[in-house]
Amino acid sequence: MTRIRFQKSLDDLKERLLVMAGMAEQGIQRSIEAYSTRDLSICELVFRSEPAINRLEREIDQMALDLLAMEQPMAIDLRFILSVIRINADLERVGDQAVNIAIRVREMGAFANTELPVDIPKLASLSSAMVRKALQAFIEADAEMAQSVLLLDDQVDEMNDAAFYALSSLIKEKPDLTPQSLNALMIARNLERVGDHATNIAEDVIFWVHGFDVRHNPQRVE
Amino acid sequence: MGVGIQVENLNAWYGTTHTLQDINLHIPANHATALIGPSGCGKSTFVRCLNRMHETNPIARTTGVVRMGEVDIYKGASPVEIRRRVGMVFQRPNPFPTMSIYDNVVSGLKLNGFRNRRVLDETVERSLKQAALWDEVKDDLKKKSGASLSGGQQQRMCIARALAVDPEVLLMDEPASALDPVSTSKIEDLIFQLKSEYTIVIVTHNMQQAARVAENTGFFLNGKMIEFDSTHRIFTNPRDKRTEDYITGRFG
User: Which domains does chain A have, with CATH numbers?
Assistant: First the structure.
């Protein structure tokens, strides 16, 4: 009973999740490109891709549910499917963050393009790198790589905090820039959430590979 | 009440075949302990060593210590006494076909010389209630033969028969593998209830069943016990790769 069909189904599930990951990552890239260029047509691309991400989320959940019900997986296979279900939800939320950013960029389009004291592309680059690394760890079943993602989250949080203070000061100093500042603040917050989702994905990879639940644990993996 | 079982360096042979090799484990009292492993791995031989049934085969022999409570079952007690203290339920229900339900349940007691009608009546009622069969058969105890019951009912009657002699340990060798899902569920519920009064050791090929009913699980392979741990640990994150490969179906 080598369960060849079951192993093939697990491979299919992983493949579909990676398609989902590609779409979510692309959403973030596009929304930041829209921010940098203020090109609203790119925002439209982000909005149009969201239903596909939602469809894929349901499809992956259904595949996972079927495998749980029909194959009754154990041990590493059970942990894999549980991780896929969680990662799927996080990727869908990454897609949502891309949409939220695109909405903010669209709103910013109504105002003059002003220099703001926050480096959104840098923050985006860091949080996207976290997502990519977490997914690479998932592809390679590499818990050490996943562990390194957890360490990056502090940097993203610090950048988000710095953006908060800089933009709140700007609002006090130049109230006429409040709309742009608030939108940038929200985008920074969205990117910080992307970092959190990457952290969740990394924690799920560690759970899958080693069986340790490192969520909400300051010591992480021993 | 159930009693704990301590197994030390247990080895068993059939002729020249070394079927159990250096088994060491502690089976805690009043818990259900599941034994899993591929066919021929030694798990059934192991349970047969716990009530000295293994030695009924003329070419079989054992070495090592099996301590039930304080008693070394190979040195401190006779096989008959051990089999009274250790009940056994087999894969296929084995009622005495010509006996009534009543006589099936008390057959062990009668063999041990009990004849008092009141004691026998009370034992039949208690055992059948413990086996969750009383309500279904109480009106036909002496009218129907044990063999006329459904497969699931027969298996519960065999459990009642094992309980009637008031054992401390109940060995179950794939007790539900020949039963439908409803009967299986009843047996599993029963195991869950019985472990407050008995120590239960269950051999099963159904890993979901082991996960459902047992607090601890041992994995046997090629006559060796590869891993023994909490059932939760075995089925979510076993320590040994061979255990993981077996329970995930990568070999077996």
Answer: 4-210 (1.20.58.220)
